[in-house]
């Protein structure tokens, strides 16, 4: 939803881009003197968004068509391959970045530059007030990238036939991607996939297989398989570990397990995790991926989760180190210029990691 602050931010962003010589030079090097901007607008209560290819000021190249993008469909089917998209800019919160990731569900994701509009989040390295520094860093080729791992999820019915999802949200078999190219069986997930009992009062019984080997039968409210990026989201609330996002790993976290010895596990990214709803399960399992409801798995049905070959390249805040910052860092302890870790800053500032009661009190006092 475009509120007045977002509209002002977009307007300032476009004005800066059009007036930046480095961007114009890079456009001519690619053989084009103009560029195209796609703005996606959503109604908060709707599942269907519209992409408006709008004629804006500042000499932006205009695509005259207005197309509709269903939730879960692939942006590359509408605008071409992701290689033709130079940069994705998000304004908002962590959910905006997760949605941007979902738009590229069939392949590679362009670099993502994320701006906070006043909210706190682990995926928001830049505040909107710093957009000029961030854009200058990107246009001049100084940006540093953190490839955030994604998960590829494939669903199967009792007969091990792949299941897809059509535009109406109904599950269906995917017999051939040549016949139904829009029903890709793989879902790309940036944070986590969660199996849960939903509104059922009964626990789920889920068989867990790792690389084809039976690990255990889980009796719980559900299970979470998360990426390192997602380890500070739902998984953390369920008691999972915090994993650095530069690692490639799969985190398996139970949700309120019946057994007290069922602890979270971390697997290498080469592992393939299969979660199968047990035949004795008294409840189906609802599926939530990055906060979006999708399938419902019944006894005998399963989902296979593995590392996706297409991570999300996120631009780091360390990209906008200035000469003043360099001089200040040389006179202090810590990481060298451009080497500081956004993640370390975030777990201290956002999570208040290992903060004592005294340090929290001092922090509250400093804010008054």
From TrEMBL:
Gene3D superfamilies: Probable inorganic polyphosphate/atp-NAD kinase, domain 1, Probable inorganic polyphosphate/atp-NAD kinase, domain 2
Keyword ATP-binding appears in the UniProt entry: yes
Gene Ontology molecular function: ATP binding; NAD+ kinase activity
Source species, domain of life: Eukaryota
Any single Pfam family the record assigns to this protein: NAD_kinase
Signal peptide interval: 1-19
Residue stretches spanning the membrane: none
Biological processes annotated in GO: NAD+ metabolic process; NADP+ biosynthetic process
Keywords: ATP-binding, Kinase, NAD, NADP, Nucleotide-binding, Signal, Transferase
InterPro entries: ATP-NAD_kinase_N (IPR017438), ATP-NAD_kinase_PpnK-typ_C (IPR017437), NAD/diacylglycerol_kinase_sf (IPR016064), NADK (IPR002504)
UniProt similarity note: Belongs to the NAD kinase family.
Protein name: ATP-NAD kinase
Originating species: Gymnopilus dilepis
């Amino acid at each position: 939803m475009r509120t007045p602050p977002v509209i002002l931010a977009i307007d300032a962003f476009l004005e800066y881009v059009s007036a930046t010589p480095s961007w114009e030079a890079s456009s001519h090097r690619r053989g084009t003197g103009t560029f195209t901007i796609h703005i996606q607008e959503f109604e908060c209560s709707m599942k269907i968004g519209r992409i408006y290819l709008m004629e804006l000021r500042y000499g932006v190249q205009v695509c005259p068509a207005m197309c509709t993008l269903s939730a879960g469909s692939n942006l590359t089917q509408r605008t071409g391959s992701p290689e033709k998209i130079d940069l994705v800019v998000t304004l908002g919160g962590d959910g905006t970045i997760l949605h941007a990731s979902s738009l590229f569900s069939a392949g590679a994701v362009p670099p993502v530059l994320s701006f906070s509009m006043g909210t706190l989040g682990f995926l928001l390295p830049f505040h909107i007030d710093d957009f000029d520094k961030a854009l200058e860093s990107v246009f001049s080729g100084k940006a540093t990238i953190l490839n955030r791992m994604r998960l590829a999820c494939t669903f199967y019915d009792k007969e091990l036939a792949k299941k897809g999802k059509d535009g109406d949200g109904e599950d269906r078999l995917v017999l051939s991607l040549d016949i139904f190219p829009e029903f890709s069986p793989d879902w790309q997930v940036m944070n986590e996939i969660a199996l849960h009992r939903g509104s059922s009062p009964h626990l789920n019984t889920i068989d867990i297989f790792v690389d084809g080997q039976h690990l255990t039968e889980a009796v719980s409210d559900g299970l979470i398989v998360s990426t390192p990026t997602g380890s500070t989201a739902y998984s953390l609330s369920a008691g999972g570990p915090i994993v650095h996002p530069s690692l490639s790993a799969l985190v398996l976290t139970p949700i309120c397990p019946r057994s007290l010895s069922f602890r979270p596990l971390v697997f290498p990214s080469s592992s393939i995790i299969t979660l199968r709803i047990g035949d004795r399960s008294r409840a189906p399992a609802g599926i939530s991926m990055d906060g979006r409801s999708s399938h419902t798995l019944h006894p005998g049905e399963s989902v296979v989760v593995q590392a996706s070959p297409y991570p999300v390249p996120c631009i780091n805040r360390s990209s906008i180190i200035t000469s003043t910052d360099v001089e200040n860092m040389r006179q202090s302890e810590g990481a060298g210029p451009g080497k500081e870790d956004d993640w370390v800053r975030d777990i201290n500032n956002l999570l208040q990691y290992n903060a004592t009661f005294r340090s929290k009190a001092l922090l509250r006092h400093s804010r008054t």
